[in-house]
Amino acid sequence: MNSRGQHFAVFRLLIGAILGVAILVIIIGIIGFIQNWEYYVSDNILYEGLDNAVQTPNGDVVVRKNLKFPKGNSYAAGSLAANAGLEPECLEIQATDASVFALEGNNFIKMQNNAVAHVYYQCFMDRPECDIYCIVSFGKALEAP
Fold it and tell me: Residue 92 contacts by C-beta under 8 Å, 6 or more apart in sequence?
């Protein structure tokens, strides 16, 4: 084999490696996009579930299953309440697993790790200080009255 043929073989190997890396980068990008999309959809379902519970404030428990939350994501009672048309003091946040959810009082929650959880909602009309009072519980089942 002459030296020209040997150089071409190395060149073909280099092109193959570059194409392999490019395909790998594209696949990793697609996986990241899909994961971010799942978090976005879960976030929308979280707010939609609260809206549904506010529409029927009779104490029935509304459940949204298998919502995905990224590490570091947080929710404040004020922002959840404002989105649902409630006063901030009329919404309570609860959680079950301290290794996944960092709960501060009953008005702020932060995700300690990536999590998949059921979220439970329950709204009432029998509180004197609020027209509608709601509980949003991450991973902790609520009981109907």
Answer: 77, 106, 107, 133, 134, 135, 136
Inter-residue contact 64 to 46 (CB < 8 Å): yes
Per-residue pLDDT of 49-88, as tens digits, reads 999 999 989 989 999 999 999 999 999 999 999 989 899 8
What's the burial of 9, exposed, middle or buried (CB within 10 Å: 0-12/13-18/19+)?
Answer: exposed
Report the distance separating Cα 74 and Cα 90, nearest Å: 19
- Per 3-state DSSP, the chain is made up of helix, strand and coil in percentages (nearest 5) of 45, 30, 30
pTM score over 0.85: no
What SS3 state is found at 135? strand
Please tell me the distance from the alpha carbon of residue 53 to that of residue 56, in angstroms, as a whole number: 5
Collapsing DSSP states into helix, strand and coil, what is residue 69?
Answer: strand
Question: Which DSSP string corresponds to 87-125?
Answer: -GGGEEEEES-TTTEEEETTTEEEESS-EEEEEEEEEES
